[in-house]
Design goal:
The complex is a heterodimer of chains A (287) and B (293).
Chain A: E1 7-10, H1 19-28, E2 33-38, H2 64-76, E3 80-86, H3 96-106, E4 110-113, H4 124-142, E5 149-153, H5 163-170, E6 178-182, H6 184-189, H7 195-202, E7 206-211, E8 213-217, E9 226-230, H8 239-248, E10 255-257, H9 266-286
Parallel strand pairs in A: 1-2, 1-10, 2-3, 3-4, 4-5, 5-6, 6-7, 7-10
Antiparallel strand pairs in A: 8-9
Helix pairs in contact in A: 2-3, 5-7, 8-9
Chain B: H1 7-16, E1 21-27, H2 38-41, E2 43-50, H3 59-68, E3 73-77, H4 86-105, E4 110-114, H5 124-131, E5 139-143, H6 145-148, H7 156-163, E6 167-172, E7 175-178, E8 187-190, H8 200-209, E9 215-218, H9 227-242, H10 265-277, E10 285-291
Parallel strand pairs in B: 1-2, 1-10, 3-4, 4-5, 5-6, 6-9, 9-10
Antiparallel strand pairs in B: 7-8
Helix pairs in contact in B: 3-4, 5-7, 8-9
């Protein structure tokens, strides 16, 4: 079934599959793209049990050979690479050149970075300036790499958690050379602004959309509720409102399924979410 | 939270429960000649008009009412996006702030932009986009962690750093969220201060760190308990958080409070600026919101 926007699956959602199993399962579930998580595992991580962000199996190491292999695997399975989710070593100015090279080798239209962490107590001002230094380096490098666009990931715990904070940073740059990943799931942790407001502010900077979900719960021995990852169909993200807002601004990019709710077996999750997202798009756009 | 109650009864409840100020949320048709005793018994921190997100009263009249109650602030809200583009709503918000600021400034009052869900100023970052065009002595804001539980949450420490000395008042309220009976998207309801997303301890620490010296305004809309019971229970909750009394719920080991971090350069600069020209109280005082009929 074709959808208003092409659907891709992010490999962080399928941590128990090998890359070979992953491409087969993603294609079989109906997605037309795959988004690769690109990172190294430190030796101590490989001794941990496999799960989300902990010794996951479905990723690519940031080397030219590994990325070439991922490209071949994806093509053989009939999948386009929608983007590369680059790991922490690329979230610094020195990472820019290598990041674009990997994007070109993969044939990926987008490379994802994060910047400006506030989690370890940095002030907003210093986190923002750190993010500016990273973006400056990427934008300078971008002119040499017309086929790959760098996208800054809207992310809780950074100086760009909300759409308006993202805009404050990105407005200093030409949207031809840098864009953002609009991430409604991350916003439920920090930075939620109504989708029509956020997309209205960000305009042409929105290049890519990631979808995950979050719900809130009452913890033990604490007053304030906590946030937890949730399956796409059980949380705060209002997909119909989102798809309506994306349609309103004429969004033309990918929808990247990044479910980290860990509530279904991964093959079943891929299929369920493809059906669910297709239906929600249909209802949002055609009633 | 005291809406619908005769003002005499409300005043007695507020003062008996230990609150020293009141945020007056008045119906647009309120005849303020009925309320002169208010100003003699408590500090009227701010005057706003219901429905809050529509700014139903003209700037001149709103400022006049605030002046007659000896309030120091008059409240406005940002525009909603209903039926218009973001840019149009943003510009409408700027025009509202300009008009209120003109009317309020000539009476020595400050205009406060209220952070509110469902408007183009739901988050601290969004508010800053508007506020940066104004002198903070003339236009400030009401920072609203209760509203943020619905839309606009940015880490308190970060939001307060972004807003700096624009923050003039802090409203506390709470919501909790639950799965919908009709669809896949969760819904929310107003809830007690002790049971929802708002993290009072974390907020108190962020305010202390920012050297905040203004009002804390209780805006509890939790249905059920009587106003008297809410005022008393919430006073204890607020005291526990703001006096840093340890107790169950006062520390969540999985979300460290980052008190060990030195104040940032920017924050220090802003605090100096604020203390130099600010005559705000030295201690945080608590006021109760929503007086009116």
């Amino acid at each position: 079934m074709s959808t208003r926007w092409p659907l891709s699956a992010y490999t962080i959602s399928i941590p128990h599959m090998t890359p070979e199993q992953g491409v087969e399962a993603v294609h079989a579930a109906g997605y037309s793209g795959i988004e690769w998580s690109v990172h190294f595992h430190a030796p101590e991580i490989s001794r941990q049990p496999t799960r989300l962000h902990r010794n996951d199996l479905c990723f690519v190491e940031p080397t030219h050979d590994a990325v070439k292999h991922a490209r071949r695997l994806s093509q053989a399975a009939g999948l386009r690479i929608s983007g590369l989710g680059l790991g922490g070593q690329f979230n610094r100015p020195e990472g820019a050149k290598g990041a674009f090279e990997l994007g070109e080798i993969a044939g990926a239209p987008f490379i994802r970075i994060q910047a400006g962490s506030t989690l370890e107590g940095a002030s907003f001002g210093s986190a923002f300036e750190a993010a500016v230094r990273v973006c400056d380096a990427y934008v300078r490098e971008a002119e040499q790499h017309p086929d790959v666009k760098v996208v800054l990931h809207q992310h809780w715990g950074t100086a760009t958690a909300s759409a308006s904070a993202l805009y404050r940073l990105l407005s200093g740059y030409d949207p031809r050379y840098i864009g953002c990943i609009y991430d409604p799931g991350n916003m439920c942790v920090e930075g939620f602004e109504d989708y029509r407001v956020g997309l209205g502010i960000l305009g042409h900077y929105v290049a890519h959309v990631h979808l995950k979900n979050v719900r809130y719960g009452h913890g033990l021995m604490v007053d304030a509720w906590h946030r937890e990852w949730a399956p796409l169909d059980d949380g705060l993200v209002d997909l119909r409102h989102l798809f309506g807002a994306l349609d309103e601004v004429g969004y033309q990019g990918w929808i990247v399924m990044s479910d980290v709710g860990e509530s279904r077996e991964e093959t079943a999750m891929l299929r369920y979410n493809h059906t669910f997202l297709s239906r929600e798009m249909e209802v949002a756009l055609h009633g | 939270m005291l809406r619908g109650m005769p003002s005499d009864d409300a005043l007695e409840l507020i003062t008996r429960a230990g609150y020293s100020g009141v945020h007056c949320e008045l119906p647009a048709t309120e005849d303020v000649r009925d309320l002169p005793h208010l100003r003699d018994e408590v500090t009227v921190t701010c005057v706003g008009f219901a429905p809050d997100d529509r700014n139903p009263v003209a700037p001149e009249h709103a400022a006049e009412v605030a002046e007659s109650l000896h309030a120091s602030n008059v409240r406005v809200c940002g525009a909603s996006l209903a039926g218009q583009s973001y840019q149009a709503a943003f510009e409408a918000t700027l025009r509202t702030c300009e008009a209120f600021s003109r009317a309020a400034s000539k009476r020595g009052l400050r205009t406060l932009l209220h952070q509110r869900w469902g408007t183009v100023t739901a988050s601290a970052s969004q508010m800053y986009r508007v506020l940066e065009r104004f002198d903070p002595r003339e236009v400030g804001c009401i920072y609203d962690p209760g509203s943020m539980t619905i839309e606009g949450y940015e880490e308190y420490r970060i939001g307060l750093e972004i807003l700096g000395r624009y923050v003039a008042d802090v409203h506390v309220a709470n919501t909790r969220h639950f799965p919908s009976a009709h669809g896949t998207v969760w819904q929310w309801e107003w809830s007690p201060l002790s049971d929802g997303l708002m993290d009072l301890q974390r907020l108190a620490r962020a305010l202390r760190r920012a050297n905040y010296r203004g009002w804390i305004t209780l805006a509890d809309r939790c249905p059920g308990p009587s106003a008297a019971a809410l005022l008393q229970a919430d006073r204890r909750m607020l005291a526990q958080a703001f006096d840093d009394l340890e107790g169950i719920g006062s520390h969540n080991p999985s979300r460290p409070l980052d008190d060990h971090v030195d104040l940032a350069e920017r924050a220090i600069r802003d605090i100096h600026a604020a203390t130099a020209d600010d005559t705000a109280e030295n201690a945080i005082e608590v006021s109760a919101g929503g007086l009116g009929r």
